[in-house]
Write a structure and sequence with these properties.
GO molecular function: DNA binding; DNA-directed RNA polymerase activity
Structural class: alpha/beta
Number of domains: 2
InterPro entries: Arch_Rpo5/euc_Rpb5 (IPR014381), RNA_pol_subH/Rpb5_C (IPR000783), RPB5-like_sf (IPR035913)
CATH class of the largest domain: Alpha Beta
Radius of gyration: 18 Å
CATH topology of the largest domain: Dna-directed Rna Polymerases I, Ii, And Iii 27 Kd Polypeptide, Chain: A, domain 1
Largest sheet: 4 strands, mixed
Shape: globular
Strand content: 15-25%
Keywords: Transcription
Organism: viral metagenome
Protein name: RNA polymerase subunit H/Rpb5 C-terminal domain-containing protein
Length: 213
């Protein structure tokens, strides 16, 4: 990909990223008004490090850190994630208080899903990887994609009771990280998502899925 194409993709996808994390409860105002020229300048930093964004949660309970990795990451992904989880490294991001979004210029294939899952299961680190070009347009707003909403954890018990279910495993599945909507919402195993589809007879049809590894 030519530099100007990547610059354009980064600039256009930035709104999607900010909208996505804002829906998760993070404050995005400080990063909303950068121009394409400023984005181009930041890209000239080593591996695009100046593009990093640190977005505080509105509740004051944590931070969403958006990282860009503009060179090939696939073969180095496991080491890269381990570095972010190592308290002895300057790149360390405490998994207890940070969500991490990593934006890459290469396709997000099975290797990425597997490593991110291992990272979560072993360290409880919430990292989500997106190919920049795939979020130039907001994937949650595609006309073929029904509305997805994360169900707050405090509502899980009441929801199970209302549906006469004994445990979450009785819900249909949505796959952690491999499913674009699960990744967009920041779902981790055990989370529930509400999906609202249009229905010719009832107006809308609501179903729920549970996020699984």
């Amino acid at each position: 990909m030519q530099d100007y194409e990547l610059t354009d993709a980064i600039y256009r996808s930035r709104k999607t990223v900010l909208d996505m994390v804002e829906k998760r409860g993070f404050t995005t105002t400080a990063y909303r008004n950068y121009s394409s020229r400023e984005i181009t300048y930041m890209m000239s930093s080593p591996n695009g490090d100046a593009l990093r964004m640190d977005l505080p949660h509105r509740s004051g309970t944590g931070t969403c850190v958006v990282l860009y990795y503009l060179t090939k990451l696939k073969q180095k992904l496991k080491t890269f994630l381990e570095t972010l989880n190592d308290p002895e490294k300057p790149e360390y991001l405490d998994p207890a208080t940070n969500e991490i979004i990593i934006l890459v210029a290469e396709p997000v294939v099975d290797t990425f899903h597997q490593n991110v899952l291992e990272n979560y299961l072993n360290k409880k680190s919430r990292a989500f990887i997106f190919q920049i070009q795939t979020i130039v347009n907001d994937p949650s707003k595609h006309f073929l994609v029904p509305k997805h909403e994360k169900v707050p954890a405090e509502e899980h018990a009441a929801l199970l009771e209302s549906l006469y279910l004994k445990h979450k495993a009785q819900f249909p599945l949505i796959r952690f990280h491999a499913d674009m909507q699960a990744r967009y919402l920041g779902l981790v195993p055990g989370d529930l998502v509400k999906i609202t589809r249009p229905s010719p007879s009832a107006g809308e049809y609501i179903l729920y899925r549970v996020c699984t590894p």
